Amino acid sequence: MSTARAVTAAIAAFALTACGTSTAGDHSEAVPTPPPTSVSTTQSSTSATSSVRSLQFGSEHRFPSGLVVTVASPSVFEPSESAYPRTDRAAAFGITLYNEGQKPYRISDLSAHATIDGDELKQVQDIPRGYNGVVGADRDLVAGDSMKMTLAFALPDEPATIELTLRPDSTKTTKVVFVGRV
């Protein structure tokens, strides 16, 4: 058992003993209940896929590593003439990353994908509007530090429900899905 898992298990046991109950929901492992906020925790293991919750835009999510992500409600806009790929309609997502963990987080490990009805949307690069992907991906987010970024994705002409999936490490199954209408 790794040190991190042993510490998590000890904290969970203490929390369950102190509280007498757990509200960990559909998680495969008992975890301490955080103070009342909109934060949810996703647990994963190497032998099973992680449980995933769909959160509304504007919510905050805490990964087991201590990385906390908040995704603001999308802002629908008309891309400029120089946007790539060309599209008549796009949605921009303000994403805040905060490292509550003990180790630096490599920003380039973050993976973001948007889908509508299972169809993947293309990320829009629109420099005049300020949508140029992940800026600063070559740096680490040290413990206690935060950063903001904005990602944009091409949309169909008609309003639809969009899912924005974030993975703190694209090589692992741990993820969170934010959902809303655009």
The geometry reads as globular
Low-confidence stretches: 1-51
The counted number of beta strands is 13
Percentage beta strand? 25-35%
Oligomeric grouping of the chains: single chain
First CA to last CA: what distance? Answer: 44 Å
How many H/I helical runs?
1
- Give the structural class: mainly beta
Give a quick account of the main beta sheet: strands, pairing sense, barrel closure. Answer: 6 strands, antiparallel
Order of helices and strands: HEEEEEEEEEEEEE
Which radius of gyration do the C-alpha atoms yield? 18 Å
* Average pLDDT score: 75
What share of the residues lie within helices? under 10%
3D architecture notes:
The chain has one helix spanning 3-19; strands at 54-56, 60-62, 67-71, 75-77, 90-99, 105-106, 111-116, 119-120, 123-124, 140-141, 146-154, 161-167, 176-181. By secondary structure, the protein is mostly beta strands. A hairpin with a 2-residue loop joins strand 7 (111-116) and strand 8 (119-120). The longest helix is centred in the first third of the chain and has 17 residues, at 3-19. The radius of gyration is 18 Å and the shape is globular.
Characterize this entry briefly.
The chain has 182 residues and is mainly beta. It has one helix at residues 3-19; strands at residues 54-56, 60-62, 67-71, 75-77, 90-99, 105-106, 111-116, 119-120, 123-124, 140-141, 146-154, 161-167, 176-181. It is 9% helix and 33% strand.
Please supply descriptive tags for the structure shown above:
single chain; 182 residues; mainly beta; 6-stranded antiparallel sheet; 5-stranded mixed sheet; 1 helix; 9% helix; 33% strand; globular; disordered N terminus
